[in-house]
Amino acid sequence: MNQIEALFNTSGDIQYSGEGVSQLEHALQTATLALEAQASTELVTAALLHDLGHLLNKKGETPSAHGIDDQHQFFAAHFLKDFFPASVCSPIRLHVDAKRALCALDHHYYEKLSEDSKRSLTLQGGIFSESELDNFLNTPYSKDAIELRRWDDMAKTPGKKTLPLHYFLDRASAIIL
Ligand SMILES: [Fe+2]
């Protein structure tokens, strides 16, 4: 928990690519939306930590603009796997694939993505084909990843009030392995 807190304290002010919020604000807004939806502590924690990979594998401002997929979902899931259950780590690992799935399920979803998110989608493998979508929906925790993705997409409001980091870290401590 100390390492996570230190990462947010030292790198949380990095801007979320192409949006008017920092990484810490984005994390807190995503977790607050999960809390408001009465999600489990595991999924609230996944919401808080889903983009931790951006802080673990820094690729500078807007890596997608330079043709780089930072693979942040894998960096975060790998970092967390010894400390949190699969109900936290799997939705994090799958939240990029959830975007690929939602684009296949709902054309309007794609249209509403930010420019950066559309660009990174291509680098992340693009919209799922029918068989890829089928496969994804049969993967454990894919439904949680889709819920997480919806909150993720909404968590980009400059200046929005949220609960503080220590509130979510305290909750997360309760589910450490
Ligand atoms: Fe995110």
How does the SSE layout of this entry go?
Blueprint: H1 2-11, H2 23-36, H3 41-49, H4 52-56, H5 72-80, H6 86-105, H7 107-112, H8 115-123, H9 130-137, H10 142-154, H11 165-173
Helix pairs in contact: 2-3, 2-10, 3-6, 3-11, 5-6, 6-9, 6-10
This protein binds fe (ii) ion.
Fe (ii) ion (FE2) is lined by residues 26, 50-51, 152.
Nearest-angstrom radius of gyration? 15 Å
Bound molecules: fe (ii) ion
Any idea of the CATH topology? Hypothetical protein af1432
User: Could you say which overall geometry the principal axes of the C-alpha atoms support?
Assistant: globular
List the uncertain runs: none
Number of domains: 1
| CATH-level-2 architecture | Orthogonal Bundle
